[in-house]
Amino acid sequence: MNLLRATLGPGGNTAKAKGFEMPVPPAARGSAGEGRKVVLGIRPENVVPPGREARGATHHLELTVEIIEVLGDEVVIHGRAGEDTLVFKQDPHRPAAVGSVVEVQLELDSLHVFDAENERRLGTWNLLPIASTEH
Q1: Residue 125, CA distances (Å) to 24, 40, 78, 130 in order
Q2: Are 113 and 28 in contact (CB under 8 A)?
Q3: Closest by alpha carbon to 43, among 111, 92, 99?
Q4: pLDDT tens, 19-69?
Q5: Which residues of 71-104 are buried (b: 16+ CB within 10 A; e: fewer)?
Q6: What pTM, to 2 d.p., does this model score?
Q7: Count of alpha carbons within 13 Å of 92, Cβ hemisphere only?
Q8: How many helices (H) and strands (E) are present in the chain, helices listed first?
Q9: Given the DSSP bridges, would you call strands 101-107 and 58-70 parallel, antiparallel or unpaired?
Q10: E-assigned strands of the chain?
C-alpha cells in the first residue's frame, strides 16, 4: 500500500501532503479536526494511469516517473508527487519514460485515512461496536 503523510484541512474535508492537496473520502470526513496528522493509504491498483477507466470519485494527481519495473505482463511505475512516492501498475504496451510526468487518478472510495499517532483508521466504521470474543 502507498502511504502518504498529510495534515487534515478545515472540517477534515481535505488532506495536505508536502507537494499536493486532495479531498478526504466521504466516509472519513468530519471524523477528525483541522490540523490532525494522518497517513493516507492507497493500493497500487487504485492509482489509475492514463488509458484505464477509474471507478467512482477520483482525484487527479501528476507524478514524475522515477523508476520503471518491467515484469512481463505488467509494468510497475514509481512516481513522485511532492515529497511522496506512489507505486502503480501500467499496461506494458504504454510504458511511461523515466523523468516523464504521468497524470493518474486516485480512486477516493478506496483511500484509507489513518491517524498518524495511533494508526487507527478514521471514518464512520470506527463508530461500530467491537464484537466480543468471550463465550
Answers
A1: 15, 16, 31, 10
A2: yes
A3: 111
A4: 889 998 777 666 567 888 999 999 999 999 988 899 998 999 999 999 999
A5: eeeebebbbebeebbbbbbbeeeeebeeeeebeb
A6: 0.81
A7: 7
A8: 0, 10
A9: antiparallel
A10: 2-8, 14-17, 20-23, 37-42, 47-48, 58-70, 75-81, 84-90, 101-107, 112-115
